[in-house]
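Hello forum,

I keep getting stuck at the same step: I have a sequence, I want structure tokens, and every attempt I make locally crashes halfway through. Rather than fight my setup again tonight, could one of you with a working pipeline run this one for me? It's a single chain of 368 residues.
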Amino acid sequence: MDEHTLRLEFLPPVQTTSWEIEAVNSGSVKKSHYPDLNFPELSPVTETFKLTPQGPVFDRPLEITIQFYPAEKYAEAGLSWPDNYFTPSTTLRFSTRQPFTTRVWSGISQSDIDMLQARSMLEGQINFSSSTLDKLTAIFKLVMQDTIGAAGTPDDGMQSASPIQTYERMKTGRGKGWCENISIIYYLFANAADIPTRLVDIAGKFGPLKLTGHYVCESWISEHATWCYVDPQSRVADVTTPEGMLLHTLNLKRLADLGMLGPCRIKYYDAEENELLDRDAHAFSQAIAGYLHGDLVLAYKFGYAKNISYSRLKNFLFYPTLLYATYPIPRLFYLKKTLFISVILFSLISLLAGLWRLIDIPIGQMFK
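Reply #2:
Ran it on my machine without issues. Output:
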């Protein structure tokens, strides 16, 4: 790699043979096998780079602005520092771990029986090739229409039902449901419409005292490259800032704590007009504040345990529930990891001991 070069590494790796790298300020364009950002001039400079891989298409443009200060300039001042790269703005997201894909987050197989049935039911009702927000609107209206009046305390049968069974019970009036029950219906149909959607459990408990409790969804809006808060029980299809930026659950939590959720806008389902209406979020902010304000735990789920294709063992081993908490909580993931490693080591030791026993017996018999 050339001197004064910053190489970006993408996880998972981008499957491409070359990159086109445009330096916007200087106007230069180059092709490279790697996404390398070069700074040939030995002087401080600010440059914005646009990176385009050959072949793959991303939900958002890959842009990064770098303020570069060369090591030679530090050396002139008697400071033995390396090149300094600072990014004041970028569309990239940084992580030390490989992120999960939106499909992994949804946690439901395309071949899941409920998914296949839900997709069949959507044929002719929605346009699968329309924009994500248009599909979200159509799915949300369908769920609202078919579950209106079905809110209430569920029975044991409802609580053990799969998403499609929950939908059939609520639609036919054979069952009532809480926020979780109606959320998994939207979750199922949204994923069936090719909108990656995950479940978010808003919880928090000290002994018998519950701090909060609500169940919502987040849908991935590819055109905006962001997760979007969807609250079926509250009849809210999305929440945006006054400027129109889509918000996710953690955004709402922070705004609720600051008392700044009211000026936002919501898409609210009006049953009489059977439409999603644009409203200010003042009434919604007062209703949701009890769930989002103060101490809580946000649990981001990899799928739903009652999905027919859901594997408890696979999720236990590879997909730990992502938690956001405002107070210290037990780090059970480390305990699980320790137990898992211990089982593997014990199995290996037992296997080696068994092999040694097989080898030892014939050798011993040779000297009798």
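Residues 102-325 form a domain with the C8orf32 fold fold (CATH 3.10.620). If your local run keeps crashing, start a new thread with the error log.
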